[in-house]
């Protein structure tokens, strides 16, 4: 990692393609006894080369925007392998997805279903649609990433679902044939998934009794990873809990894992700039910031931090590891026991492959960092570091109107 940091510069993200591959295959294998599709949720890490890797493995894709659709198509995905989720799709995004024949739309409201039908009529398309229900299950995760409780904006109240299916009989183009859900992210127990499967299975049976065809069941993503080397459930644990409930339904199952596939496969590599003491507090100031990895400050997420080369002195010191951004929230660790590092040392911030670069920004006008993908023996720069010119690329002014005097 040291030579790589010199060659590419710091900060940079480094991903293991082999690890992503192994994790995809083990997720896929866990459900091999039933008809299923794994659709990688690209919001976790949408680098084109990462998408190509998953495409080659036979993965489908879960997307939530026109931009994500653009990316997966650029990566060579078949539109039929794409599931379009998201609570606020625009007309332009719907038209784009209809136009290229996206495999499934996950609708999150009756209004969205109506809009989808109207646009499908205009464009003469017959999209497959699934309703994302809100199962009112507590995923016991950070409140910002829980999504399956009634207080959240996501999904449709299960009590409204039968009425929407009855209404769907009047549709000419949109084919409502599935149910879906996504209850949250970084879920560290199989129980909420099993509870959700039980709820969905009940609804599938009820809808079928009323004569509706339910061909697919989308269980969303959300399987957590262990950021602190504590035991975490595996796809096999999920399969063991869910399949006895879902298998008898004979639906095609869809899964939308993001973090589980890529989270542990990435590190953020950063260089120590300065060591500093303020009273009792000791700080290790590094060249990466919350603009590169916002998870510690946004979700109080714990990421292990390791020096790439162990320092000669074995002692550890208690420090805050902080970045250069002008915010007190710009930290990677607080009061953490860290090896006794010195300026110039390279640190790896672990488990940063998911929602790392994907949430990066140019705050404080820092160019976004480079990304490197290692596959087998090949080390590939998959995104170059941004330049100062990249920062101002869109800022060309042109007058687009003038205000009329208000008259008072
Ligand atoms: N499907 C849908 C509809 C989603 O909204 C999400 C994530 C996923 C699948 C994938 O979930 P995963 O398997 O990755 O848990 N930025 C946060 C996580 C936000 C997750 C948003 N939705 C973080 O850094 O923890």
Keywords:
408 residues; Lyase, Ornithine Decarboxylase, Chain A, domain 1; nine-stranded mixed sheet; eight-stranded parallel beta barrel; TIM Barrel; alpha/beta; binds ligand LLP; 28% helix
Describe, in plain words, how this protein is organized in 3D.
The chain folds into two domains: 2-11 and 264-386, Beta Barrel (Lyase, Ornithine Decarboxylase, Chain A, domain 1), CATH 2.40.37; 17-259, TIM Barrel (Alpha-Beta Barrel), CATH 3.20.20.10. Helix 2 packs parallel to helix 9 (235-246) and helix 5 (91-100) packs across helix 6 (110-123). The longest helix has 19 residues, at 191-209. 28% of the residues lie in helices and 24% in strands. 44% of the residues are buried. It starts with a helix and ends in a 17-residue tail after the last helix. The mean pLDDT is 95. Strands 1, 11, 12, 13, 14, 15, 16, 17 and 18 form a nine-stranded mixed beta sheet that branches. An eight-stranded parallel barrel has the order 2-3-4-5-6-8-9-10, surrounded by four helices. It is an alpha/beta fold. The chain is globular and about 70 Å long. It has twelve helices and 18 strands. The chain binds ligand LLP. Ligand LLP is lined by residues 41, 43-44, 62, 85, 145, 182, 185-186, 220-223, 256-260, 295, 299, 354-355.
